Amino acid sequence: MIRTLLCTFAIALGLVFAHAQIEPARTTPIPAAQNDVPLAAKHGKATAVFAGGCFWGTQAVFERVKGVIDTTAGYSGGSASTAHYSDVTTETTGHAESVRVVYDPSKITYGQLLRIFFSVAHDPTQLNRQGNDVGTSYRSVIFYSDEDQHRLAEAYIKQLDAAHIYPRPIVTQVVPLKGFYDAESYHQDYAIKNPDNPYIQVCDRPKIAALKQQFPELFQRYDGK
């Protein structure tokens, strides 16, 4: 695949340094959201959709979070007719590589998911790119499905920017979810199925390590790994 070839080439040249973390030396998570909803009284299912660069890494993070029931790599932001990898990679469809996260709101809150999204899943200050992946399909987006998600996402971005958590302003878009389209089957659980892929080793394994280090109380092994 294109991204694997580019990453392998960059490794050979010694150019790969950045991964999804804001600061490679960060060992503690960013502040928790000041505005959040409480844990639900009963078990249930809720859905969040995030885009933060290549969906392989975003899925690899969220599928290891306690309280997350299921994750799916896919496309959001464009139409159903162009929700195919061959189309999305042309950077003309409006889609962003996204991950649908189904979670139990009695075990984890939307605010906690946002904290993980901004802390370890990607760099929210990179515009239309993540590291060596460049284009609008790699942009940072929160696709909200209701006004609570909209309100919490906007409030958290303002909180983080006001505290100057990052060296640059957050560029994450917060837009309504109009559709989520599952990606091709070979993209699902890609990091688990291809652990020795150079892209996964360099770009995604550090995210998983950061999740385990910064959020040990929320980290869970996935598929024995």
Strand % is 15-25%
Segments where pLDDT lies below 50 for 5+ residues?
A: 4-25
Rg from alpha-carbon coordinates:
16 Å
The total beta strand count reads 8
Characterise the protein shown here:
By secondary structure, the chain is α+β, with helices and mostly antiparallel strands. It has one domain: Peptide Methionine Sulfoxide Reductase, Chain A. The chain has helices at 2-13, 55-62, 85-88, 110-121, 147-162, 190-193, 198-214; strands at 46-52, 68-76, 96-103, 129-130, 133-134, 140-144, 173-176, 180-182. It is globular.
Compile the SSE list and pairings.
Layout: H1 2-13, E1 46-52, H2 55-62, E2 68-76, H3 85-88, E3 96-103, H4 110-121, E4 129-130, E5 133-134, E6 140-144, H5 147-162, E7 173-176, E8 180-182, H6 190-193, H7 198-214
Parallel strand pairs: 6-7
Antiparallel strand pairs: 1-3, 1-6, 2-3, 2-8, 4-5
Compact description:
This protein has seven helices and eight strands. The chain has 225 residues and is α+β, with helices and mostly antiparallel strands.
Label this structure with key terms.
225 residues; alpha+beta; Peptide Methionine Sulfoxide Reductase, Chain A; six-stranded mixed beta sheet; two-stranded antiparallel sheet; 18% strand
